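quick one, 154 residues, struct below
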Amino acid sequence: MSPDDPPKASESLDLDLAFVTPIWRILEQAPIPFAVTRGPTHTLVFANTAFRAVPGLIAAPKPGRDIADIFEPTAAARLIVFLDRTAREGAGLRDRFIGSLEFGSRPWNCTVWPLLLDSTPPRGLVIELSMATHTEVAQSLQREVAERLLLSAL
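---
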């Protein structure tokens, strides 16, 4: 798939090409990992070159594959929480901490926004992945400790 060619119908899972092509052309050039999903199982419609190169993926991010099938199960579960929330509420979530994508690797954040166009519910979701900063990791650990303290107090 080259940046100049729009995805084929089979690659876009019969999603309206008028919907996929403009987004695809922009996101394919991005140096940041981007993917587009659709449906309740978050079936992958598109993944740019940077997304396909993300360390820790357990399967190739190909169109038609559910997002849960390409990440390690615990990382997939954390990501799916944000995808489900965005799909349900129709509002984007920015820089949400999802942790390591594989054991011992650097932690990641995700940003998810709905592709609303003229439809509700969203016609798809856009996922952006970025490495978490030291501050975000520290805040996540503080939240985790606070949650454990609250649970132990019950």
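Residues 134-153 form the longest helix (20 residues).
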